[in-house]
Amino acid sequence: MRLDPLSIPYRIAENSVRIGGAIVLAGVAGSGGSGGSFLQGALIFVGIAAVGVALVAGWEVAYHRRFRYDLTEDTFDIHSGVLSRRDREIPYHRIQNVDLRQNVIQRVLGIAEVRLETAGGGQTEAQLQYVNRKEASRLQEEVARRKRDDSEDTESEQQPPAGATGETLFAITPRELGILGIVSMDLRLVPLLLGALSVFGPSMITEVVPDTDQLFLIGPLVGIGAIVATAVLSGIISVLRYYDFQLHRRGEEYRYERGLLQRFSGSIPIEKVQTLSIRENVLARWLGYASLTIETAGYSPGQGSGARSQAAIPIADRDRVLELARSIEPIETFTFERPPKRARQRYAARYLIVVGVLIAGAYATTLHPDVSWPWYLTALLVGMVPVAAHLKWRHRGYYLGEEYVITRNGFWSQRITIVPAYRVQTVVSSRTIFQRRRRLASVVIDTAGSSSLSGDDAVAADIDDETAEALREDVADRLQAALTSRRRPGDGHPDSQPA
Amino acid sequence: MTDADPPTGPADGGAEAQSGRSDAENQERSQPDGTDERDNDPPVDRAALRTDVRTIEARVRWKWLLSALFAAAVAGVVIGALSVFALEWGPLPGVGAFLVVALLGGLHVVLLYRSWEYQVREDALYLQRGVITHVTSAIPFVRVQHIDTSRGPIERALSLSSLVVYTAGSRGADVTIPGLTPAEAEELQDRLKVLAKDTADEDAV
To answer: What ipTM score was computed for the predicted complex, to two decimals?
Structure first.
């Protein structure tokens, strides 16, 4: 099969813009040698530009003519390349995701980009630029179906009926979208912004509004304005990203669609789900909302793993999120075990040191002859230490169930990580020198999906060291138990077959 | 500290804890059939493959000491150069920095060696180590992807070997046991291979 004919003009436009710089440069150079006459110069310029575009057009027509893809019995074949030919056969069972994306222009033209993702390697395995929107959906459907057939040959698991249209698990309402906009303002940017403002702000203000003696008023105003602006901007961005978000379940995968300007559709293979995390920042928690993220892992022998994290639910009522999480993993009701109270002392001590440094720094500035301000007012920060320590302690905890380990961390941005016992990779307990003083330890439950770069590991932090030891052993035992029960046919999860 | 630092494990380690090898030899003596015929005998006797808590070879301290001295030399040269050329205080701060870093490094090496322990249990490999932060890891055999032994030039000079165990996890995806004798490393590799194979009919993710 071929790409959509409309992809030719689109790709010509796209690539002409991309090499537009070179065309303009060549045009200017060409017209510069024309000896001065403006008309002549312009003609040469247009001529060179036309030649450039014509070359691109020729290339794109050839690209379209020489690009062919086929859905064969058990592979997805792609034959492509104008000068150097490339033939690829991708086995269906190795395809993890078929993602579609469409920007505004592509939507008007009714074409879409299809990306085939496999587990191995970090980048997209194959791209179809571009096919008809209907054809794109058909491909997505077809690959999913053939993948299912493929795996059905090899095992006798019970499969959910492959419905033509999947059931819709979640669709975002305008109200939720609005709340998402409010909630997703990035609080982490604020200190950065304030830091930058305190350095560059004063000089900028004196440049813009000279001769004012009310600087002390303008400073906070600019600060608040900047915070509001970032908040509004990040709100708008996430509204655009998650506009008309929908999550469907279709056979063995979840399918989501989202986006206003750039329409995006992707899939999450259920058998690759590693962990679920429920996140809520302070604002969302206060409003009673949360989001759900699914971590999946790609694995192919010899290639190690690549972890992917996908927002399954950008925002929803907290109960709703829990309910959806339960539909993915049947978690029992859980209550968190908080760290012992002496962990709170540890946080207090830590914050006290930070505050001490701040006060000392404030005092140090007054040593400069020109600076004098009531530095001792920073001592008020000490009053916040117990509050902060308590909040940090309050929002930590862990739960060990028969089949799940659940951890909770973070006050500003709380995340609850749900790790199925059969997904545990390694269990590591560690005690720093400061933790040993208070007989505390942390247990990290590693999975193939956790993205440790963003610090999203499942950690039971600062629990009693004997409890930690027991937890480490228990988690390892639960893993064995879970694997044993999943090895028995007809028992446990429907996705226990190897990839 | 001396080489006769007794492992904290069961009784048989104490008397002849000249090196970690004694445990391995005990183990081999207690199961003379070796590992060969387990491959065609699916129900692996996991209990027999367990080991006691083992320590690592004392010689590994020389290797660590060398890298500590190297770090100390770098620190000494940098600080010495700063003090000679930038501050014009003479070379003494450099020597001081070298001595301080070397001393701390040496202390760290001794403590790190003392902290290292590993054990092959029924389901998992257990490792314990760390000076400032004590870390205990459990690596279930089901999750082992592959096992390497590696020997660098210094390790070869000391006739040592390291074992590297890989998992598909994201943090600590590879775990190294340093300071094994080559025979010990190979024996441990075989042992883990049998255990991992026995459980590896699963997707390891």
So the answer is: 0.71
